């Protein structure tokens, strides 16, 4: 279960990137499957050639941002449907990633990575390693929360809520979309670089179906913990990633076939989408919301009474 926690918090970085496009920009970006592998391949090849792992990870983020920018330009300049733009970039990245790696798999077991100090100290698979992953995920979450509070972040949220209204307020929505897709895929590629270093290899197929895992983390997390504020939403995404990895680990532990994991992931997303619309669940959430409003009103009245 510790491995599931480590991977859950590590993949939370990818889930935050998916959250940025899926929830904030309202842009169904399928570039993720390709940009994740791009980040892994760039970092792996650079480290094999003696580049510092931190610098290699930064370059991986930049490569992911370039991939997101291509998707953004296809949509904004080429006026291509968002789904199709993401699919086109994803398909192109498959060949690009093969070109970068020169083969289908690049091993990193003998290379120095950002996790080498933990591995040499025998801390991988321990609570110390989990703590490091938690700090890493929370740091990225904090940066994203800060960014969404800036002028560009607010413009991005406005574009996702109502693009026409945002444009009428003078927001360059096309530029905002491109920037948002770049940031999102930069996070995804950075996660790919870290996952490659953690697992010890970069593989051409490691990103296949990853968008489902990202969506599962976002949807499950926000279905359980809510999305009233940006901070709550991003925190829910991080916890959703952990829950998703935990479910996968439990499924493997009870003897399910690893080949069925994609099917289980898809089923989890379907449940997370359908369950909130189920009448008993809707009534429970409404009752909980009413209780919270009532409690807040009582608190305000109590404070007002003590002041008077």
Task: Note down, in words, how this protein is organized.
With 308 residues, this protein is mostly helical. It folds into 2 domains: 2-207 and 225-231, no CATH class; 279-308. The chain contains 13 helices and 2 strands. Helix 2 (32-48) packs parallel to helix 4, helix 3 (53-76) packs antiparallel against helix 4 (82-101) and helix 10 (210-225) crosses helix 11. The longest helix has 29 residues, at 279-307. The radius of gyration is 21 Å and the shape is globular. The chain starts with a helix and ends with a helix.
Task: Provide a brief overview of the structure.
The protein has helices at residues 2-24, 32-48, 53-76, 82-101, 116-120, 127-148, 151-161, 163-168, 173-199, 210-225, 230-253, 261-274, 279-307, and strands at 105-107, 201-203. The chain has 308 residues and is mainly α. The protein has a two-stranded antiparallel ribbon.
Report the helical percentage.
over 70%
The end-to-end distance, rounded to whole angstroms, is 54 Å
Please summarize the sheet with the most strands.
2 strands, antiparallel
Domains counted in the coordinates: how many? 2
Structural class by SSE content: mainly alpha
Task: Sum up the structure in keywords.
308 residues; 2 domains
Task: Detail the topology: elements first, then pairings.
Elements: H1 2-24, H2 32-48, H3 53-76, H4 82-101, E1 105-107, H5 116-120, H6 127-148, H7 151-161, H8 163-168, H9 173-199, E2 201-203, H10 210-225, H11 230-253, H12 261-274, H13 279-307
Antiparallel strand pairs: 1-2
Helix pairs in contact: 1-6, 1-9, 1-10, 1-11, 2-3, 2-4, 2-9, 3-4, 3-9, 6-11, 7-9, 10-11, 10-12, 11-12
